[in-house]
Amino acid sequence: MRQKWMRQALRLAAKGGGFTAPNPRVGAVIVRKEKLLGKGYHKRFGGPHAEVNALADCRKKGHDPAGSTMFVTLEPCCHQGKTPPCTEAILAAGIKAVEIATLDEFKEVAGQGAKQLRQKGVKVTVGCCEQEARRLNAGFFKVQQTQRPLVILKWAQSLDGKLTWPENEESPTHRRWLTGKKAREHVHHIRSACGAVLVGIGTVLADDPMLNVRLKGKHHQPLRVILDSRLQIPPESKLVKSARKFGLLVCTDQRVLFTERSHAQALIDAGMEVMGLPAAAHGYEGLDLDTLLTNLAGRGILELLVEGGPKVHDSFLAANLADRIMAYIAPVIIGTAGKSLHAARPLENLENVSINTFADDVLVSGDINFSFRE
Predict the structure, then answer these.
(1) 371 pLDDT exceeds 80?
(2) For residue 126, what are the contacts with CB-CB under 8 A and spacing of at least 6?
(3) Contact 304, 195 (CB under 8 A)
(4) Rg for the chain (alpha carbons), in Å?
């Protein structure tokens, strides 16, 4: 039964999507004698945390939380931040036991929240559904450990491993995409949960994408990031025209900022941000991806979704900066003319592999084994 309640809390936590960053996604449920009294999740950065929302829900339903058990997906905070300490709210409510999926690694908490509750007589247990909880907040933990966001490589491919239709070859309108409508809709849900989405200038010039979330209802819009070493992004592109509405960061060679000052300023005047990156041996068109990731983490971005073509994906793999892959496989065969990945080294033993279907398309996803890293 412990897992039943914790998994319900995890499902609640996932609703936070991309709205909670740089805070983690957290869910909580309050139970007494196997009866659900209240539930809540962290809805947005700066707002009440999951524990406080669960207690409020409990009282709203006419229940007294005293003597109950709280299941929470991450260790309750014990410090004053944007909101008061959750440990104080738990103690004031008379909660007798707290089940924690995983401890927090943020330096202001890091085990102190659980310790404080135990010192006040609350029974604290840690570890129920820990793997699922850590995976849900993999980006948050990655930033705490490395000061870089979780990097997710997403691509669509044919059965014969091609990521693009042949260049300069006319295809029916419905063949603009490799995958079908349901798979593409799923990608928008993934985008909405990430802090940023990235492509290279090649994709911009070829497809003129928007890279925003186009779903019904209220959804988080990620920062759109473009790797453009020579500052080639067209002023008439959809990205530039929508820069003020959705946010756009164009990363170029830092030397270009001096040689193309007027052009860079024109792009800035159009509402976007232009950032210079140093050169690197492994990087898309020589841009230092490590510096970019550190910058994104400093902005509070926990997950970066890389959607570019083969060249962009290869650059992240060559620099050993990828953490997770999502490959949508369409039931088509393109032949020798399409472009494929050319990873610098093999990827073996993916972890947490999952397979999902979306109509005729198949999604294979998994985490890159850390033994791959050198």
Answers:
(1) no
(2) 75, 100, 101, 102, 103, 114
(3) yes
(4) 23
Yes or no: say if 211 and 199 are a contact pair by the CB < 8 Å rule: yes
Confidence of residue 6 (pLDDT cuts 50, 70, 90): very high
Tell me the pLDDT band of 105, cut-offs 50, 70 and 90: confident
Tokens of 122: 């609350």
- Give a three-class secondary structure readout of the chain: CHHHHHHHHHHHHHCCCCCCCCCCCCEEEEEECCEEEEEEECCCCCCCCHHHHHHHHHHHCCCCCCCCEEEECCCCCCCCCCCCCHHHHHHHHCCCEEEECCCCCCCCCCCHHHHHHHHCCCEEEECCCHHHHHHHCHHHHHHHHHCCCEEEEEEEECCCCCCCCCCCCCCCHHHCCCCCHHHHHHHHHHHHHCCEEEEEHHHHHHHCCCCCCCCCCCCCCCEEEEECCCCCCCCCCHHHHCHHHHCEEEEEECCHHHHCHHHHHHHHHCCCEEEEECECCCCHHHECHHHHHHHHHHCCCCEEEECCCHHHHHHHHHCCCCCEEEEEECCCCCCCCCCCCCCCCCCCCCEEEEEEEECCEEEEEEECCHHHCC
Task: Using CB atoms within 10 Å of the CB of residue 82, give its burial: 0 to 12 exposed, 13 to 18 middle, 19+ buried.
Answer: exposed
Tell me the C-alpha to C-alpha distance, in Å, between residue 299 and each of 22, 52, 223, 249.
8, 26, 10, 12
- The tokens of 148 are what? 């870089």
Report yes or no: 32 and 7 within 8 Å, Cβ to Cβ: no
Written as six digits, the tokens of 304 are 């970066």
* Whether residue 51 lies in the annotated active site: yes
Prior bond of 76 cis (ω within 30°): no
Cα-to-chain-centroid distance, residue 41: 18
Spot the catalytic one: 34, 51, 108, 236.
51
Measured from the Cβ of residue 328, the count of other Cβ atoms closer than 10 Å reads: 23
- pLDDT confidence band for 108 (50 / 70 / 90): confident
